[in-house]
Amino acid sequence: MEKNDDKDPDLHHDDDHNDKSKEEEKGDTVSDDVDVDKKENVDVSNAETDHVDPGDNADKVNSPLGQEEAPPEIPQTIESLSEELDQLLASLSLHKEEHKDVTEEEKGEEGNYFQIPQFVGKFLDLFEDKLSKHDTVDPKTTWYQDPEEVSSLLEAVDRVSKLMELLLNTKSCLDHHESLINHAGSIQQRAMAFLEDEFRVLLEESVIKEPAVVTEDQQDHHSDSQDQDNVNNVPEGGDEKVEYPGYSEEMVVLLRKIVEKMKGAGYGCECKEAYLVGRRNILMRTLKQECEFEKVSIDEVQKMSWGELEREIPIWNKTVKDCSSLFFPGELKLAEKIFPGDEGSLFNIVTHGLAIQFLGFAEAVAMTRRSTEKLFKILDIYETLRDGFPAIEELFTEELRSELRSEVTSARSRLGETAINIFSDLENSIKSDSSKTPVPGGAVHPLTRYTMNYLKYSCEYKDTLEKVFKSHSKMEEEESTERAFANQLMRIMDLLDGNMEAKSKLYKDIPLSCIFMMNNGRYIVQKIKGSAEIHEVMGDTWCRKRSSELRTYHKNYQRETWGKLLGFLGHEGLMHNNKIVKPNLKERFKSFNATFDEIHKTQTTWVVNDEQLQSELRVSITAVMIPAYRAFMARFGQYLDPGRQTEKYVKYQPEDIEDLIDQLFEGNTSSSSTATAKRRT
């Protein structure tokens, strides 16, 4: 750094400032004792102020043997000069107070003039050398590892700042010590630039560990396991527990001291700017590492495919929750420790933009094109805003807290309205599903599966949806919003019932129509019974009513299919004058066999996937058919001639019928035209 050649005369510097011998000679001739306590005006002795011819002492040093030699010089250091400088600063402070009311006319009087000893310049030069040494070290931050060096450097900064403050605010000094003020000011600027750079580097690079996020599920176990898990969170050889943002206490103390020194020198704004830039970068880097989070604009969200948004939304949810519980509180605590008194404003600047970005993302998702599959991700965002953001809001100052609450309310309203509209879209999709192609085998219709799975999953968000419908429904009467979600669910179920009933009429075979209604009805009931949330909404009364309807369809199916077959096993038309009419009996067996074969052929292709319903149907058929067939065989089988006639007309034994009934409803489309069963003998 260049120094001003026009040195202040009171420093007693020779023009050749870098000549060591001349400095030593001057040091011998200057008395640093300044006593302002005994009298009002400062008096510096002639011995301190008179120039001494350096040649006088030089002659003694270089004289022949036997002549007097100069005593050995004691090297001057920052430490050795600090005590003298402290005394001088105290004297100068007292002088400033005593002469603060001196008039312009009195300024020039000798008693009002404060002379600065030469060692002040020496102290400034030594401090500049120290800064130069650390500026050239790579890496620069090794200085902070030596506590003595930290203390020496920061105390020197403090002394230079106090010197500048006193010089600039003492009237006589401003008039008589301009060159000293310029010199000290230049060194102070260099010191501030050095500390600002060091502050930034230490802030960025001295994080011991950016700790992993503790999830909600781990919270209960975190305290018990913290000691064991803390191995990776401490520096080697230490027992210190380090939480986000991951600085050791020693480093926090050092950073705070740097802040204090820079603020004391009037460089607080520069220090704050370095902190803000550094912490914003570190926070964003941490969010990317821990949560895979990266900022996206509203326009970018609008252009994303749903597949991309499905990946982004869980990341957003995790990031907001972690910021609520860990990262934002950590930032506020750090600001409190390093900038006590200014933490609120600094925390606001570091985090407020990110909080607003979170809310922008939520609103952008709500504004994307609606579709039923988006409901649950939208509800996830809604819940995160509801549960996670209040804790974030409380960290901010009152003004920003009110702003955030307003933004959160807006975002939640938009999300809530979107969720309600999606439910309306589901209603409309059921109404508009007018497909005319019956489902093969009377199986559960895809619309039933989709709707019930959708409603089952929706009811896992029951509490949230009830809140959404109550808070964001456009219904005018409060009473109608109390059970808005339950009413919506009932409407959807009624619409689904009506749709399935209409689709059952697409089957020309009435028994198959009954199987279709049983399949869909059983699927709906089982879904409701299997979900406590949806069962709570629909209620026991609704389930009992639906089960009763299923029994009706079951009876209709049995009557339409097996009632006709049972007609062949009656006695009517087989007896005449108490004698068996064999041709009629033979025809009866043939008709029974043909009808049963047709039923078996057809109904093995029908589908009943619910094992319980399938079993109930087979058991009920067996309970009706086997006793009747067994009785018919016992009563009339004996009238057929043994051998070929019996084999021709008695195709099945009761056990065969039972086995064939157990083949029904398998959805086997490759059945042969004739029922086959292993004949039992």
TrEMBL record:
List all Basic and acidic residues biased stretches.
Answer: 1-29, 36-59
Coiled-coil zones: 78-105
According to its UniProt entry, the protein's GO biological process terms are: exocytosis; protein transport
Provide the alphabetized UniProt keywords: Coiled coil, Exocytosis, Protein transport, Transport
Keyword Coiled coil listed? The answer is yes
Q: Which GO terms describe its cellular component?
A: exocyst
* Segments forming domain Exocyst complex subunit Exo70 C-terminal: 316-662
InterPro entries this protein is in?
Answer: Cullin_repeat-like_dom_sf (IPR016159), Exo70 (IPR004140), Exo70_C (IPR046364)
Q: Where is this region: Disordered?
A: 1-76, 213-243
Q: Which GO terms describe its molecular function?
A: phosphatidylinositol-4,5-bisphosphate binding
Q: What does this protein do?
A: Component of the exocyst complex.
Family affiliation = Belongs to the EXO70 family.
Identification of the protein by name: Exocyst subunit Exo70 family protein
